[in-house]
């Protein structure tokens, strides 16, 4: 028997077995709740054809089952059967067919440069230096001088640099955009390095994370821009490497596929189910059962499914738009997941929703990871993202909750994803992304200084204390003395 014939026989056998086992669990037609008029008409149609009515195809075509039955009212039995056959054909066409489909295009494992995208330079070619963060500017204070880095921070290249520098936060770029069909997120890290806002004092609290913490720019993680699957594996290794030194990884994407390797890499170090996640996003990103196992629409499902984070320690904030439908919300409910939609914000107000989310994050009693998709912000603030949805958070809403979460919880990591500077010819998307990152850096710095209340405010910047402060200043000789010859 030829190999081809064997294959056909095997397929026949498989389909026979599956159809037999399928027939055994007899399908209950009652489940369909068919209107009696329709039931009468389809009496002579084989029952296995009617089973298509239990799939999503009739509602995909006609919206609701009511509308389907309405449309069938004027049809004859023959016409209905033809309609069912057509739907069965659609169902079959959707499925993987080993005869015509390639499940994957195999990689060329013979390529001399198969791992070229991530192979490391031999370190002995580098000039000798003491390990530790390297400043890329010859100037003391001008953070715009030298080479641009995240938050104007010094650079670190190897884990030894993180250890020697006692680094608290390592900000690392992950320029991956293959997980999104709207590309350009790979330019996120360079846009955030070029824009300001991630460094310096925070006026709300008068805490300066750049002074309090040892922060570094850890460069960009190598990405195979032809493959999300291969890239996420390497991202996981690099996130793990940072966390192993005790530094908190801040991952700058890149698309939201990164949430999966970021969470998995942290779970490798801190332990599975050892931390909670607050996911800021217009979308819930818990898609499942798709052709590709990992895309920017599925990291949440994958992280939960592999057991890195418990659904009940997962909080979603900012959901809106057309996705998910009821099924997605039911999945979250059934798995103990918390969610705060923009609809809830409309109903209860931001302050109330923010307080609930903050207390839920703390109540978990776990360490925390924040996943911040910039599309949680209104497109007015971030037009530079691939899947914008109107009606989002303002910067004034987002900043206090991020700062609060990073102050009140022990952070294991933070990611900011989906910034696509190609879609925003202005500065604002990257600027706002930097200020969000700064809010979390500030929170971590506050905690470092012993402040653990998320709603802490600097008295100096929130109360002018006049006239008493001015009177006191005058008494102490601290007031400006008028000099009529000033700059003459
Ligand atoms: Mn997302």
Short descriptors:
alpha/beta, Arginase, Chain A, Ureohydrolase_Mn_BS, globular, single chain, 488 residues, Agmatinase family protein, eight-stranded parallel β-sheet
Descriptive report:
Pfam families: Arginase (PF00491). It comes from Pseudoalteromonas distincta. This protein has 19 helices and eight strands. The protein is an alpha/beta fold. The protein folds into two domains: 23-94, no CATH class; 133-448, 3-Layer(aba) Sandwich (Arginase, Chain A). An eight-stranded parallel β-sheet has the order 2-1-3-8-7-4-5-6, sandwiched between helices. Helix 14 crosses helix 15 (350-363) and helix 15 (350-363) packs parallel to helix 16 (395-408). The protein is globular and about 105 Å long. 39% of the residues are buried. Residues 14-23 have low confidence and may be disordered. It binds manganese (II) ion (MN).
| Overall outline | globular
Rg from alpha-carbon coordinates: 28 Å
| Uncertain segments | 14-23
**Distance from first to last alpha carbon:** 104 Å
CATH architectural grouping of the largest domain: 3-Layer(aba) Sandwich
Beta-strand segment tally:
8
Q: State the helical fraction.
A: 25-40%
CATH homolog superfamily of the largest domain:
Ureohydrolase domain
Count of helix runs: 19
CATH class of the largest domain: Alpha Beta
Kindly identify the CATH topology of the largest domain.
Arginase, Chain A
Tell me the series of helices and strands, N- to C-terminal: HHHHHHHEHHEHEHEHEHEHHEHEHHH
Q: What compounds are bound to the protein?
A: manganese (II) ion
Strand composition percent: 5-15%
List the strand order in the largest sheet.
2-1-3-8-7-4-5-6
Count of structural domains:
2
pLDDT average, as an integer? Answer: 93
Q: Which structural category do the helix and sheet elements fall into? A: alpha/beta
Instruction: Note the main sheet.
Output: 8 strands, parallel
InterPro entries: Ureohydrolase, Ureohydrolase_dom_sf, Ureohydrolase_Mn_BS
Family: Belongs to the arginase family. Agmatinase subfamily.
Keywords: Hydrolase, Metal-binding, Signal
Signal peptide: 1-23
